[in-house]
Every structure is written in structure tokens, then in C-alpha cells.
Amino acid sequence: MTLSVRRPPFPAIWPTRLLCAGVALLVALAVTLTVPLSGAHAQPAYEPARGTQERKDLMNAIRPLVEVRVGAPVEFVVDRLRVSEGWAFAIVSPQRPGGVPIDLSRTLLRDQAEVMDTITTYVLLRQAYGRWNVVDYAIGPTDVFWYGDPVYSQLPPGLVPG
């Protein structure tokens, strides 16, 4: 009895090449899905319009931060407000209702009042768990406090002043 060896209809190297091609395709797909969108596809920073729920939610997230230091009630003059990709950056000037200035000598900030330029408040917020959350803030800073902070380097363009 003679044994004959059947040759496969394709060269033996093909399964290896097909496996390599499949792995390369999976890697390319994984990279495509994990690389963040380029600036061309990212949503540009915008200012929520007055009276919108989004703007009210942002101000209400900032309010306790300020009221605990200067007392309630507090209203804000919005100097800058930008939102993009679940992040927000606000520059607000706190005041009492009706535009009455806040007397710092009657607040928890009384000891810092001499070194503060103003009580203008800068706030970085992140939307998570169905609400806006304060991530970082400064009240009355005398410099651009966010320069060099790695948290701010990950933010979408146009969110913080250049």
C-alpha cells in the first residue's frame, strides 16, 4: 500500500500571512477607535445663551463655592463663559442681588482682601453624573493661575482665554 501525501491547494505560508494581515487590521481598527477626534471634528467652544438651562446649571454649580466664602445671596456678572466637550470655564464677578457690591470686610475673605485684585472668580467645571462639578477655581487671582497646570493642557481649544 502506498501512502500519498496531499499538498494543500495553497502554499503553507498563506495562513501566516493571513494571520498577520488580520492582526494588522485589528490594530488599525483599535487605533482608529481610541485616537481622539482631531480639532476639525471637535465641537468648538461656545457660550450658553442667557436664560438657558445649561447656563443656569453652570451658575448654580459655582454659587455654593462663592456663597460659602462671601455669604448668600450671590448673583454673577458673567465676564466669560465657554463650554466644549463636557468642560466649562467661567470667569464671573460675584455681587449681591441688584448689583450691590460685596463688602469683603464682612466675609471669610477679609484677611486676603488687601492682596486680591478683585473677587472675580475663575472656575473650571466638568459635566459628570448628570450635573456640572467644580474641578478647579481661583477667587481674585493676581496671575494666570492655570498656565503650566497639566489639567488645563487636556482641555478643548477655546475654553480658557489664550
**Secondary-structure-derived class:** alpha+beta
**SSE series:** HHEEEEH
Helix content: 25-40%
Q: What Rg, in angstroms, do the CA atoms define? A: 28 Å
Number of helices: 3
Q: How is the biggest beta sheet arranged? A: 4 strands, antiparallel
Kindly state the number of beta strands: 4
* Spatial strand arrangement across the major sheet: 1-2-3-4
Residue runs with pLDDT of under 50 for 5 or more positions? 16-21, 23-40
Overall residue-averaged pLDDT value: 82
Assign an overall shape: globular
- Proportion of residues in β-strands: 15-25%
Distance between the termini: 86 Å
Any overview of this molecule?
By secondary structure, the chain is α+β, with helices and mostly antiparallel strands. It contains three helices and four strands. Strands 1-2-3-4 form a four-stranded antiparallel sheet, covered by helices on one side. β1 and β2 (87-95) form a beta hairpin. It is globular and about 45 Å long. The relative contact order is 0.14. Residues 16-21 and 23-40 have low confidence and may be disordered.
List keywords for this structure.
162 residues, alpha+beta, 4-stranded antiparallel sheet, 22% strand
What layout of secondary structure does this protein have?
Elements: H1 14-34, H2 53-70, E1 75-84, E2 87-95, E3 121-128, E4 131-139, H3 150-153
Antiparallel strand pairs: 1-2, 2-3, 3-4
